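Lecture 7 notes: from sequence to structure.

We start with a single chain of 100 residues. Read the sequence below before looking at the structure.
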Amino acid sequence: MPAPDPHGLYIEEYDDGGFSIICELWWHGNRANRIRRMRSIADNIRWGGWLCAHCRKPIPIFRRSDALYCRERCRKAAARLRRHERAKRHRYARGRVMEF
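Now the structure, written as tokens:
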């Protein structure tokens, strides 16, 4: 599946904190998908910004609209952290406390 068009959306931010999203629409292809992506990104920004769940930096516009991480590195680091926390909880639950 191809990635979203990186030049299809433009976000214009204002000094008062508002923003507008400009969307390129073509007569070929599925226009509804691009409009749906634009609305989803607008909702992400409106609900406190579209920030990476790991490093808290803004997510680039060329990422999918449901992206939680700004890049692959953050996604993998978050997964490692979750695995480490889960293993630590499991060791404490079994009564054995072992540290790395």
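The first helix runs from residue 31 to 46. Keep this in mind for problem set 3.
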